[in-house]
Amino acid sequence: MSFDPNNLKYDAAGLIPCIAQDEASGEVLMMAWMNAQSVARTLETGKVTYWSRSRQAFWVKGESSGHVQSLVDLRLDCDRDCLLALVHQVGPACHTNRRSCFYTAVRDGEEVELMKPMD
Amino acid sequence: MSFDPNNLKYDAAGLIPCIAQDEASGEVLMMAWMNAQSVARTLETGKVTYWSRSRQAFWVKGESSGHVQSLVDLRLDCDRDCLLALVHQVGPACHTNRRSCFYTAVRDGEEVELMKPMD
């Protein structure tokens, strides 16, 4: 079946969550949102392109920071309402300069920081 | 800092997305939604407990199917608006009986099925 970004299920704001996973390590790096056009752009350019809800604009990951996400494989889930992008990540994925945004764990009722910002 | 489920950022419906990742293989299994109470229940019981948007009810993963998700580690992202649950998954995570919900890839404009239902 040929893929059409319009055949995904978007929320009321026209967005779908996209999980970015490091293709080599398997680490989950971040989750952000895409609209149909950013899905299309991601596939066309090979550069993972989200939709920034705060800026209401396309967000080519790494465009300003240099921390680019190159698309290796794009997957969709059974309900067609969530995407998984396997990526090659340059440097940190997180705006805090950490490799992954998921650097805080909940252990014994406490928040524990699992990783430090990269040099 | 002590963790309080009410200090996460929920959407207008009071929900936060939670990504489930296989703790051993690193495979991303599924994404579903939680409210503050299902986050608390997940931590209390060690059984990953989502909020079913369709049924508007708690959804203890595997309660009816037996395909339980045992919580290994719960993480939150930098914006506190997405969760990552590292889990031990019994059997398939997907209702289609596949190990992961992300069994469809987009390659050269076509949807490609990557895995078959488990026996």
From TrEMBL, chains A, B:
Cofactor(s) in the UniProt record: Mg(2+); Zn(2+)
Gene3D superfamilies: Phosphoribosyl-AMP cyclohydrolase
Entry's transmembrane regions: none
Keywords recorded for this protein, A-Z: Amino-acid biosynthesis, Cytoplasm, Histidine biosynthesis, Hydrolase, Magnesium, Metal-binding, Zinc
Free-text cofactor note: Binds 1 Mg(2+) ion per subunit.
UniProt domain Phosphoribosyl-AMP cyclohydrolase: residue ranges: 30-103
Record keyword Hydrolase present: yes
Binding site for Zn(2+): C78, C94, C101
Residues that, per the record, bind Mg(2+): D77, D79, D81
Cell location: Cytoplasm
Pathway membership, UniProt: Amino-acid biosynthesis; L-histidine biosynthesis; L-histidine from 5-phospho-alpha-D-ribose 1-diphosphate: step 3/9
Pfam families: PRA-CH
Function as written in the Swiss-Prot or TrEMBL entry: Catalyzes the hydrolysis of the adenine ring of phosphoribosyl-AMP.
Subunit structure: Homodimer.
Record-given protein name: Phosphoribosyl-AMP cyclohydrolase
Organism of origin: Pseudophaeobacter arcticus
Lineage: Bacteria, Pseudomonadati, Pseudomonadota, Alphaproteobacteria, Rhodobacterales
